[in-house]
Design brief:
The chain is built from 17 helices and 16 strands. By secondary structure, it is α/β, with parallel strands linked by helices. The relative contact order is 0.13. The structure holds flavin-adenine dinucleotide and iron/sulfur cluster (SF4).
Length: 471
Amino acid sequence: MAEEKKAKPKIQKEAVPIPKQPPEVRRRNFNEVALGYTEEQAVAEANRCLQCKKPQCIQGCPVEVDIPAFIRLIRERKFEEAIKKVKEKNSLPAICGRVCPQENQCQKFCVLGKIGDPVSIGRLERFVADWELKRGLEAPEKPAPTGKKVAVIGAGPAGLTAAADLAKLGHKVVIFEALHLPGGVLMYGIPEFRLPKRIVQAEVDYVKKLGVEIRTDCLIGRIHTIPELLKEEGFDAVFIGTGAGLPRFLGLPGENLGGIYSANEFLIRVNLMKSYNFPQYDTPIRIGKKVAVIGGGNVAMDSARSALRLGAEEVYIIYRRSRKEMPARAEEIENAEEEGVIFKLLTNPVRFIGNEQGLLKAMECIRMKLGEPDESGRRRPIPIEGSEFTIEVDTAIIAIGRTPNPIIQRTTEGLEVTRWGTIVADENGKTSIEGVYAGGDIVTGEATVISAMGAGKRAAKAIHEYLMNKK
Ligand code: FAD
Ligand code: SF4
């Protein structure tokens, strides 16, 4: 009798949606927007994965997590094994699961994306990371000490990842962080409603459990220079992960009026100094009724959504290109729109207009059209002559990008730097000075959390090889 053909399981084309706070509620609170999968939802989403023999998703992950393996473990409800599998490659999964632009990385390559929604890899990563956080984080056993000491400058994702990997290899690691809290942009930039600070703190605590020492309020270049760390403080190698924390400005007339913030200052006040919790925290912030945020990236979306939550009546995103060119994560653009942020696209500010007290009262803008692609590959915005118009606003937040902090470069003789102020390093983070490595935004210019982590990982591997071969 001919063998009966096995029926192929039906592919579920739509991803299991993630529960969220409704827009009309969340637009006025700082609680997390996306609530995370339940166990049943996570297993259902994991069941969509085809467990491909040649999984394309892995090539899209800068830290090479074995994605099908951890998803299979979720299917089997082996959540503890699943998070262990993720953590073989990623020390900050609860963070990555929340803020990585998966649509441009692992999920972009998922084969299911050709016929429907790709597997929600990020949401599944977040699910297992949160599952573990609820039960308390366990650090792996400490390896035998190598006797080598590494200084890591900056406690952002690049520094934390390099430190974690070096500690796992048995090196003594000290992180020097300029601010009073570790986490970098994760702590001071990305708002609570997208990345709760208890999650960042828990992942920082995990890095500490690996044996990493974190010294906060230590600005390298001031308290010690890199040559001092190597020659006088007994460090065998240094990793620089100081990020791109200096705001860019537009250079327009009126930019110094009262009521105009750089996104950096605004978000640091809101997140790090917790001004949204004033007067419990004593950093007030003035927010007007009509707020314009200039820019189209994640920083702009975070600023606009924070302004809404602080009580602004109308919040505009002013962006000089079209929606298609916006660099922010697609999900965050959608969230901002749902919450009522108004998008004024193909629009650019020309000057800021103040009142008698020197406070912002309006902004003159010009309409734009798109020309040929420029060096960034995006179509160049061109002003349309005579299309100027004025919008009444009493607060403006400039979110047009950030540049590297220059202190290290200025105080480290022999460190090769580009004309944009980023540090020159090869793909393993090796700089022009022996024993000094660098990675993350300080090398690439502003990028993503996961790319900074990938750079930290590669540098940790290279530093380990250097230390083990050093005479
Ligand atoms: P950072 O995170 O900037 O950390 C550098 C650390 O070094 C800081 O803590 C700083 O205080 C410290 N430091 C600087 N100089 C010194 C010194 N001299 N001595 C000691 N310490 C020093 N990416 C995403 O993938 N997804 C997102 O959704 C996303 N949203 C973002 C939202 C905002 C508001 C911002 C600003 C960025 C966002 N990014 C996002 C980008 C991402 O956060 C960065 O690419 C990433 O944090 C870079 O990591 P890093 O470790 O290189 O630097
Ligand atoms: Fe699963 Fe998509 Fe990866 Fe295939 S490409 S293993 S379907 S996540």
